[in-house]
Amino acid sequence: MTAAAGTVFIAAGAFWLSFTSLADLAARSGIGAGQAWAWPLIVDGIIVVTSPQQLVGMIVEKAVRMAELMKIPVLALVQNMSYVKCPGCDEVIHPFGETDIADLAKKYSIPATAELPIQKDLATACDAGLIELFEGDWLNGLADTLEELLKSEKK
Asked: In CATH, what number is assigned to the domain containing residue 67?
């Protein structure tokens, strides 16, 4: 049994291909966790989801280098909790400091990045299992870039 071709694996916190994620993947597919280690995972690319802490940045770099060694392209970096927007004046505040996600993407030739805000409504939708119903445009540019990558790859 293999994952469908065209799979993009989303690596939350850069701990992709950990036993936890394989076991979760196995549970959802109906195979045992022990079998997951032998389950060939066909992945066309990964999207690494990170947060703005310095330690996490080091882990992300390790994950990106590991993906390079495995010949799996990193399609994008997405930084969660990147900023908060003041509801009174729309000022963008980076509570954890300015992001370096674009520098990291440039360093490793990762074609796309996105930054997600700290927003109560977004967290509430995630907690309720209703994220697909949430209205937000933070990932539109990322989706457009990935769509263009797919189109150019088909040519």
From this structure: 3.40.50.300
**Local confidence band at 21 (pLDDT 50, 70, 90 cut-offs):** very low
pLDDT tens by residue, 88-124: 898 999 998 888 888 889 999 998 889 988 888 888 8
Kindly give the pairing relationship between strand 74-85 and strand 45-50. Answer: parallel
> For residues 94 and 118, what is the distance between their CA atoms, to the nearest angstrom?
10
Question: To the nearest 10°, the Cα dihedral for 62, 44, 123, 97?
Answer: 40
CB atoms within 10 A of CB 9: 20
Distance CA(20)–CA(5), nearest Å, equals 22
